[in-house]
Amino acid sequence: MRRAYFKANWIAALLVAPQLLIIFVFFYWPASQALYWSLTLEQPWGGGNTWVGFENFRTLLSDAYYWNSVRVSFVFAIASTALAMSMALVLALFADRQLRGYKFFRVGMIWPYAIAAPAVGLAFRFVFNPHAGILSYINEVLPGFWDPTVNGTQAVIMVVVAGAWKSIAYNFIFFLAALQSIPRSLIEASAMDGAGPMRRMRDLQLPLIAPTFFFILVINITDSFTDSFGIVDVLTGGGPARATDLLVYKIYADGFRGFDYSGAAAQSVILMVLVMALTFVQFRYIERRVHYT
Amino acid sequence: MADISIRNVAKSYGKDSIMQGVNLEIRNREFVVILGPSGCGKSTLLRMIAGLEAITAGEIAIAGQVVNDLEPRQRGCAMVFQNYALYPHMTVAENIGYALKVAGVGRAERRAAVERVAQSVGLNEFLDRRPGQLSGGQRQRVAMARAIIREPRVFLFDEPLSNLDAKLRVQMRHEIRRIHNRIEATSVFVTHDQHEGMTLADRLVVMNKGTIEQVGTPEEIYDHPASVYVGGFIGSPAMNFLPGQVSAARAAVVLGDGQVLDLPRDVATAADGQLVQVGLRPEQLTIVAPGTAELQARVDFVEELGSGRLYHLLVEDLPLTVLSPDKHALRDGDAVGVTVRPDALHLFGAESGRRIDARGARVAAPQVVPA
Predict the structure, then answer these.
(1) Which of A33, A232, B2, B226 qualifies as a cystine partner to A249, CB 3.0-4.6 A?
(2) Per-residue pLDDT at B47 exceeds 90
(3) Distance between CA B275 and CA B254 in Å, rounded?
(4) Residue A185: which of B77, B81, B103 has the nearest Cβ?
(5) Is the CB of residue B137 less than 8 Å from the CB of residue B84?
(6) Segments forming the whole domain that contains residue B287
(7) Domain A35-289: which CATH class?
(8) ipTM for the complex?
């Protein structure tokens, strides 16, 4: 790639300044503040703080509730990512087979991604309501069959489905675009070589969309750790019995309901490091295997 | 045995009809080249044989079996694509062996077959490379090897040489012909390049706007073009056309400016009074001193070709090119005479565009070998 250089450095600085300013105000500043708080004991009503070193982290890591939250978060991340990606991929493969109005899909299908998480949560609260939702009919026949307000596993399923639904459309668009970018002649060549549709999918389409697959994987995993607050908050409030107490939700609950600012800050730092580590691992070990040219 | 019968085949996309009533019989082991400009339907016809394009009407049979409703893989055809269509994530060996892998051939046997075929097209050293690491010519060979390994009954080529540079194109052309001779398959080759068509074909099929204009050996098509279209399309530099009218009384065709070219008496009698286009190939005309030949012309300009010269003349206002190895010392505007050999004169109906032959009848629309 050709790179252009500016002769005067101040022009370059001026051009990147707005972006830097935004990142600074909304990331570096709060992140460093959180880091500072996580190393102090912050008073809930203001009035100074005390330096405690890694005491907050020690407390957290010996807290069973916190480890429960970590476990639930991983279950949620893996399950919702798997569901969102597999559903999106299946839909995209179907759509790619015979497609007219691709542009319509692209615009029409992106909307769920644009809906705020609490709104999604609210919608699914109705859908999964044990008394009025779609499963309430089963409850009429088998009383108590479905009640996510009591059954923790069902609550997790509900949150996973709602979280996945929000990403499916987004994933679908990317998968479809990737499938559409595979030259038609490649598919035709493999048809001439005797491969049927399933075989073509396995040998050609999936390997060739691997870069997109990887990108979507990173986005989905990251999103499910950091962007699931609204859904949990509206659907379950972290319950029942902390069954859906995701890391990001626990930060909010401990910090703004429990007024444990320092503990919440420490959790934020851990979550941040975790997401960065996951992304790093994915880039380092998976991305390397998906490029073929 | 794999003869191909194309009977009354038509193709339309929605309301747009792009091919109407095409009939063609391709004999077993024949090398047929379908020639035409882009958009004439030649690739579509090939893809219909392959099974990549649905047949709107009519039927196609391979080795006596109607294949209209068969999947590509059931037709026993192999195809070489214009852009090669190699699988970018597979090595050369995997690309070549893919058809066998799909067919469930064991690893060892596959490896042996891949090596044998790679050997025959000179690819042994590249088996572990990816297509992205190969040159255009090498990719072309991989595409060929991938088709050969299946030992197909029918070989389909969709403009396989058009992405190569001129020198490589000639080399690959020879190689394709050699492979065809070695393998007992029927080959159908689509191209817009008349040199490829002339040199490769046992029989040439000239297409235009979704119909077949003429079918014949390259020689037949060059010597007896069935229409103005074929005459103008085949041959380089292109055939000259001069309008005129046939006169039986003078046993000649009278050109627009009153000049007269002799015709055989039977042709002149049969076509008496018809308005015609006279087709003259530049390489069959000879420049002589003014007044000593049938046709009088003026020099417009001259192009140097190295091996000879291309003389651009004017007959009245109409351009007439003459290709000659002789280097005449002529200046722009000089008067010259042009000799027209009787066998070099092609006569076409001015309106129909069809050839008028010795029997005076217009040559019937596409010459079709009956099924």
Answers:
(1) A232
(2) yes
(3) 10
(4) B81
(5) no
(6) 244-349
(7) mainly alpha
(8) 0.80
